[in-house]
UniProtKB/TrEMBL annotation:
It comes from Rheinheimera riviphila. Belongs to the Nudix hydrolase family. 8-oxo-dGTP binds at R26, H31, E37, F38, P39, G40, N122. Residues 6-131 form the Nudix hydrolase domain. It catalyses: 8-oxo-GTP + H2O = 8-oxo-GMP + diphosphate + H(+); 8-oxo-dGTP + H2O = 8-oxo-dGMP + diphosphate + H(+). Mg(2+) binds at G40, E60. The keyword DNA repair applies. PROSITE patterns: NUDIX, NUDIX_BOX. The gene is mutT. Its EC number is 3.6.1.55. This is 8-oxo-dGTP diphosphatase. NCBIfam families: mutt. Its cofactor is Mg(2+). InterPro entries: Mutator_MutT, MutT-like, MutY_C, Nudix_hydrolase, NUDIX_hydrolase-like_dom_sf, NUDIX_hydrolase_CS, NUDIX_hydrolase_dom.
Amino acid sequence: MQSTKKLIHVAVGVIQRDEQIFISKRPDQLHQGGRWEFPGGKVEQGETVVAALTRELMEEVGLQVLDATPLMQLEYAYPEKTVLLDVWLVSQTEGLGEGLEGQQVAWVHFSELSNYQFPDANQPILDKVLALYQAQ
Ligand SMILES: Nc1nc2c([nH]c(=O)n2[C@H]2C[C@H](O)[C@@H](COP(=O)(O)OP(=O)(O)OP(=O)(O)O)O2)c(=O)[nH]1
Ligand SMILES: [Mg+2]
């Protein structure tokens, strides 16, 4: 049967500083609440993905995006919604990185990422990030 659910386009930033990656914890009441995530959010109508990424990272964690390159796109069907994660590698930012919405945040060494629980959709992103560092 063809799905009639709409696809939610999400801009996601894998924010790196050398070997550290910035992650934040989704507030409990949100979809996938309590899981760690790469900061980001929904692309609004008429907005480019980079504009959405830049806006979300400033709003959520106070980081200004200075350089971002596309990393991967993946679609994932949760029972309640299907998301298109548009994932960018953000290799230059300005700011400390703080939980401006009251969420927990952390700079984590790439080798420690597997100790954090992410949404189920994120596994290919985690694999890709590890592969990037292992290739260096
Ligand atoms: N930001 C982010 N969202 C993710 C990740 N993995 C994953 O499945 N998602 C899902 C959870 C949500 O259903 C959706 C992102 O929505 P969101 O709640 O961050 O959207 P938003 O920041 O625009 O929030 P709002 O304005 O709707 O409150 O993508 C991830 O690593 N980062
Ligand atoms: Mg968000």
